């Protein structure tokens, strides 16, 4: 499946809309009690965003010849679950006791729009719905994969290390370890879950895991770079918050130039993993390049 | 299996110790990074408690002739998962933005012993481990059941309604609805998961669900009563906190006398559900009576 830039853009636009339809479908209605909690969940989930994790999972599912005719619901469930987990982590991350952010995706953060108690519970509730949806795929392995991606050896471990590293000098290895877990683990998990649900061979799964790890780390390095020199309007959040919060960042550790070079190298390596298969341009290559060049 | 009070006490003591061994086995070690997060998870989970939800799940598993010889690990996994979910809900409930409690099970609450950021993440991490363990049972239905018990139509919905009802006058129906969700749903879920993992028939599952609902509601009514007239030392937490926090409580709505009578009636009804089977005294009856008479 050769994919040029226009087709890639169309794909991202398509999965973004599809993901939003799925989120709307799978989220509890805010006319059903507890209305305020459901409203807060919807407020944060439906606030926009690139919907990159669902786009990756879907692209990998198709790449691995997952059944999109008779069995498309299993990947739909996983796409919504991944985005809900991502949103839950943002809500808790934005709390005053964590990063204390007021703005997210161009709107007040959940605890600003509602209150802190609602934000804690809305994050918790999205966390549960994500597992419920993943369980509905019928794949125990996909549920385990999600748990591994977001547990203490993955996302939560990275968030904890991120909080602990505030104001500390960190080495390149340490910041790589934080970023791989904080952001990389869920991106890697999205890729692996797409492959697992498609019934990919272990060899293919292992190759795609490498791809997921490379783009996941690159994604967070670029996030750090954008927090220094990005466009606030495009990003929908204040830039300079890492510096304000004395966060350990990749460019803060190795410098902006080296950070840019390392991100580009990781994207090239991700492309090379896919190239091993001697394939033409495809969606996975497009998505890797998209991550490398993103401005928001 | 006839069970007198001494055998019942021994059973509770046995499952309490078993549960603590299981929790220790399944919790990540605090010598592995992120150490502080793992230490906080262990601090809160290993702080004691009756371990009632695991005891109920195990008793039901045995009652339904679950295999305790070749397949005991599946119920062990579920027991640990239930206690972790319970602890996660307590950690988030105790946060300053929620009930703002300093003392839990006779020790400083998680955010007092560590800090708020760690408490948010430790609750989140226990939440993930619980789903990971439940997935390891291999039963998608048990995973779904857990999600239903603790989601917005269950525990989280009850916590939200509980927060919203602060300082409000509520009717008896409203307080019943809050209690059924806030506390009842997970107790009901523990009973149902024990039955599901044992492969109980739908008829038996439905009867046990009724038992679980009755004792779950009774449990929270008695919790409210103990917050008024309980022994602070036995309880390991300050009494009078409901009144301080202007919580909607069952005795606050119908009076202490009626609250005592309704709790006793619910326990009798739970016993009657089990009696339908014309069985001798058994563990499930003992546990229902234990909940009715507990002083901590």
Task: Provide a compact summary of the structure.
By secondary structure, the first copy, chain A, is an all-alpha fold. Chain A is about 70% helix and about 0% strand. The first copy, chain A, has 15 helices and two strands.
If you had to describe this structure to a student in words, what would you say it looks like?
2 copies of one chain form a homodimer. With 296 residues, chain A is an all-alpha fold. Chain A has one domain: Farnesyl Diphosphate Synthase (Orthogonal Bundle). Helix content of chain A is 72%, strand content 1%. Chain A has a two-stranded antiparallel sheet. In chain A, helix 3 runs antiparallel to helix 4 and helix 7 runs antiparallel to helix 9. The longest helix of chain A has 28 residues. The interface between A and B is large, with 45 and 45 residues.
Key traits:
296 residues, mainly alpha, Farnesyl Diphosphate Synthase, two-stranded antiparallel sheet, 2 strands, 72% helix
Give the SSE map:
The structure is a homodimer of 296-residue chains.
Chain A: H1 5-26, H2 35-45, H3 52-63, H4 72-94, E1 103-104, E2 107-108, H5 110-113, H6 116-136, H7 140-150, H8 155-164, H9 172-198, H10 202-229, H11 232-235, H12 241-244, H13 250-254, H14 256-275, H15 283-293
Antiparallel strand pairs in A: 1-2
Helix pairs in contact in A: 1-3, 1-4, 2-6, 3-4, 3-9, 4-6, 4-9, 7-9, 8-9, 9-10, 10-14, 14-15
